[in-house]
């Protein structure tokens, strides 16, 4: 399905209907894991909240299992936030690597990468970056994890410090179609600068498409007052009302939401449940599902942000968004369709 560059209600309605079709049914016929398995690669000594928000948002939205692969010192805090998350404190900072393996850092990194990649066959989507930090030991490890993920065609959602990795090494992701990048304004500008693309705010649709093309048509989610999703060929826009409060963690919630819809798309493609009505773009599913998952993730996240702000006002935090995901999802996707534009939560 190809859309014009302008946002209109009909386009949003069509995307909304397609999004609903890949949502797993609530049924006794499915077993654990068939409604999605997501993992987050992130979390460092300084930043433990970001991977929690990403993984927990995925669980609250409806994936069956959510893993977090984090730095050793982040493991206990993240485990303490919720017993629902499966936490693997396998990653090591450069300081930690030097302390225990000063002469064999590369060897230790390869061991960690092998340990993480051994889980890939049990996952549908990998989120890269929340709370990762700029530590060189973690960055070097994640670069190799990305290479391993590409080798098995594992879908990736890359955000936050994961985008810092791509900014410094675009070839790591160039041409990898199952990848979704989710830059904010600053991250988008840095990627454009790296790819030598002039960023003109009056030509944001063309600039976003050009960035995607320069990166080999990976899906770009340019976050802003209107979220823009493009693979360099098609553009979807999402401008339903969000929050006037810009608290930290909203991007992490978004990465988890996108990963969830992406996982559901892969489960739908695998026929994990019966399909009463086939998607009419099923023949191009691998190309279009990252776009659809990105739009749907933006849509539900903006609704959660709006609902949290309406309830909490200035005191709203990302935790409030997470706690409202269930109600927002029900009101948005599982009740009357006349609530598309504005729902009461």
Concise summary:
This protein has 345 residues and is of the alpha/beta class. 48% of the residues lie in helices and 12% in strands.
Q: Which features would summarize this protein structure in a list?
A:
345 residues, disordered N terminus, UDP-N-acetylmuramoyl-L-alanine:D-glutamate ligase, alpha/beta, nine-stranded mixed beta sheet, single chain
Would you give an account of this structure?
The radius of gyration is 19 Å and the shape is globular. It has 12 helices and 9 strands. The chain has one domain (9-271, 278-339): UDP-N-acetylmuramoyl-L-alanine:D-glutamate ligase (3-Layer(aba) Sandwich), CATH 3.40.1190. Strands 3-2-1-4-5-6-7-8-9 form a 9-stranded mixed β-sheet, with helices on both faces. The chain is an alpha/beta fold and 345 residues long. Helix 7 (161-168) packs parallel to helix 8 and helix 11 packs across helix 12. Residues 1-10 and 336-345 have low confidence and may be disordered. Helix content is 48%, strand content 12%. Strand 8 and strand 9 (235-238) form a beta hairpin.
């Amino acid at each position: 399905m190809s859309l014009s560059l302008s946002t209109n209600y009909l386009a949003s309605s069509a995307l909304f209907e397609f999004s609903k079709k890949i949502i797993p049914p609530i049924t006794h016929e499915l077993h654990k894991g068939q409604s999605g398995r997501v993992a987050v690669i992130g979390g460092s000594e300084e930043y433990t909240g970001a991977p929690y928000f990403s993984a927990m948002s995925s669980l609250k939205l409806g994936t069956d299992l959510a893993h977090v692969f984090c730095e050793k010192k982040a493991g206990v805090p993240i485990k303490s936030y919720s017993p629902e998350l499966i936490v693997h404190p396998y990653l090591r900072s450069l300081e930690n690597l030097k302390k225990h393996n000063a002469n064999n850092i590369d060897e230790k990194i390869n061991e960690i990468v092998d340990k993480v990649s051994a889980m890939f066959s049990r996952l549908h989507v990998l989120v890269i970056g929340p709370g990762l930090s700029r530590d060189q030991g973690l960055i070097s490890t994640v670069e190799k994890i990305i290479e391993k993920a590409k080798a098995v065609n594992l879908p990736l959602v890359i955000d936050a410090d994961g985008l810092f990795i791509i900014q410094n090494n675009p070839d790591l992701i160039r041409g990898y179609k199952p990848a979704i990048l989710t830059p904010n304004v600053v991250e988008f500008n840095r990627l454009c600068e790296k790819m030598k693309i002039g960023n003109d705010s009056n030509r944001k649709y063309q600039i976003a498409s050009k960035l995607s093309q320069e990166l080999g048509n990976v899906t770009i989610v340019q976050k802003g007052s209107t979220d823009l999703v493009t693979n360099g060929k098609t553009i979807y826009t999402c401008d339903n009302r969000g929050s006037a409060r810009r608290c930290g963690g909203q991007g992490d919630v978004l990465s988890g939401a996108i990963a969830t819809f992406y996982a559901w798309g892969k489960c739908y493609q695998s026929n994990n449940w019966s399909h009463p009505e086939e998607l009419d773009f099923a023949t191009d599913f691998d190309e279009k599902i990252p776009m659809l998952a990105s739009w749907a993730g933006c849509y539900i996240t903006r609704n959660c942000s709006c609902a949290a702000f309406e309830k909490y006002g200035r005191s709203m935090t990302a935790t409030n968004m997470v706690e409202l995901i269930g109600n927002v999802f029900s009101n948005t996707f599982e009740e009357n369709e006349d609530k598309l534009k504005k729902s009461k939560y």
